[in-house]
Write a structure and sequence with these properties.
The structure is a single chain. The protein has 325 residues and is α/β, with parallel strands linked by helices. It folds into two domains: 155 residues, 3-Layer(aba) Sandwich (Rossmann fold); 132 residues, Rossmann fold, CATH 3.40.50. The protein contains 13 helices and twelve strands. The strands form two sheets. It has a seven-stranded mixed beta sheet with strand order 2-1-3-4-6-5-10, with helices on both faces. Helix 11 links the parallel strand 11 and strand 12.
């Protein structure tokens, strides 16, 4: 590592998003009796082992056959069931054709939930770190794309996707995460939330990067820099109104994501900005390279998407704005 920054150990205080997802399935299993869970021999890694134990008659084991599982989900949805397809994010790419033609094209009511996205996978390395899923799934018509930022939002998002009639792709996460949202927080598909007010720069995050942006903004506030933080947990449909509002009310937007800088959150936000209310922007993420093996927090530092890395980029961004003046 070039910079002497210690990892901030994101999430050592709470459970993982995947475990929160599995527990949410159990919680909502009575309210939504028509959903079933499809597994590719990896329930211990996706959190769905909680549901398997509580509802074994609604749990279907497909083995290591993701394409078949995805196609079967489309057929099961045609009978009135709500299939929830679960595996690692990188294996979701293997079944893209089936997701596109068996689920999205006929707009089947299937929920695709992927654990182990991005650098959050950690020691498993580049082959398992899916940095392309947001880009690929948001490019499919009819597909909703969600990336909750903490365990509380994961619970809310799980219920929201069950209430939504149509295909959904949702990220969970492997590492433990810090629960930082207030309990009055509201989740709605297609809506972002301002979780910290500010009037100079807007930081927009999703998934694990939202807390890091929040932490960076609080530290910058101590230095007299007012930074707004937006949790954009729905990447598609993106909240255009909120993005335009931030473009008008602050001097620039920085997005940050645990994903390739191409095609993900930053691309989705920039598409809105350039067509509606152009403002200076910067996209933080993994700069079109594969990841490598390491602890998630160490990788966040190396690739510049930890809170200190975000702070550094905000300060550079502000200097660039001042130079333009």
């Amino acid at each position: 590592m070039k910079e002497n920054r210690l990892p901030e150990l994101i999430g050592k205080q709470g459970e993982s998003l995947r475990e929160a997802f599995g527990k949410a399935l159990v919680k909502y299993s009575v309210e939504f009796p028509d959903f079933v869970v499809l597994d590719a021999d990896i329930a211990g890694g996706t959190g769905t082992h909680h549901f398997r134990k509580a509802n074994p008659d609604r749990f279907y084991q497909f083995g290591i056959a993701e394409q078949n599982m995805m196609a079967a989900a489309g057929g099961m949805a045609a009978t009135g069931l709500i299939p929830i397809v679960t595996t690692f994010a990188v294996f979701m790419l293997r079944s893209m054709e089936q997701a596109r033609l068996s689920i999205a094209y006929p707009r089947m009511n299937v929920k695709i939930v992927a654990s182990h996205p991005g650098l959050d996978v950690g020691p498993d390395g580049a082959s398992a770190q899916c940095l392309e899923d947001l880009a690929t799934y948001r490019s499919i018509p009819n597909m909703v794309v969600i990336s909750p930022c903490d365990t509380y939002e994961m619970e809310l998002a799980t219920k929201a996707m069950l209430q939504y009639n149509g295909p959904v792709y949702m990220r969970s996460g492997r590492s433990a995460s810090i629960s930082f949202l207030n309990k009055d927080y509201k989740f709605k598909i297609g809506k972002g939330n301002i979780i910290k007010n500010g009037n100079y720069i807007t930081l927009i995050g999703c998934g694990v990067t939202t807390y890091r942006a929040f932490k960076a903004a609080n530290e910058l506030q101590n230095d007299g820099i007012s930074v707004r933080v937006v949790n954009m947990s729905t990447i598609k449909p993106i909240d255009k109104e909120l993005i335009i509002q931030c473009s008008k009310e602050t001097k620039g937007i920085i997005t940050v994501e645990d994903h390739n800088v191409i095609g993900g959150l930053g691309s989705a936000v920039s598409e809105v900005v350039v067509q509606n209310c152009p403002v200076k922007m910067k996209i933080l993420g993994v700069n079109d390279v594969f990841g490598e093996s390491g602890e998630p927090d160490e990788l966040a530092v190396k690739y510049g998407i930890d809170s200190d890395g975000i702070k550094k980029e905000v300060l550079k961004f502000i200097n660039q704005i001042n130079e333009i003046k």
